[in-house]
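Field reference: sequence -> structure
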Amino acid sequence: MTETIMFHDGNRERQDRFDSRRIADRLEQKLTRRQLTPQDQAFIEGSMFFFLATADAEGQPDCSFKGGMPGFVRVIAPDEIAFPDYDGNGMFKSLGNILANPAVGLLFIDMGEKPRRLRVNGQAHVSRDDPLMQRFAGAQLLVRVKTRAIFPNCPRYIVTPGAPDPSRYAPRPDYQPPEPAWKGFDDFKDVIHPRQPTPNGE
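Structure field:
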């Protein structure tokens, strides 16, 4: 069995049902990494927001929006990022989850003219006396994330804020969306397979 940092048995069951294991493996091989590139660092440190996914000890999920000035998330090592926890509503949904279950997922999105998405999965640690805190204005706590898997996502469904129309790739009645360009790239075109419906219509 090919070693994977991305997929578990549930992912594999779906991939095999829809014949997408080959493209999933190729995407992991070509795009997934354990360490941040200089391009990743520039994107992350230029972001004014990201979405943070956490789960409690029982696996109950939560997703929150985190925002600040550009640079409020910083790459402090090739495999580690840090961000501050600012004043909020006091529920500590995300940071409380991290204490119970340190696995986290971060989603960075650029909704500009050239949209982009970057996902960072890893293990988080929360501290109120981290020596780095002095570098983050307004921080009450500091979160460090050791990266496990970093991978870009196709941005085709991203909509620029204020745009009057949905993405041209969004399915709708009586409309055939165009294929994204990446499906024709040499690295991927030989393993592309369209998702097929199952007999029960799934």
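Note: The two ends are 27 Å apart (CA to CA).
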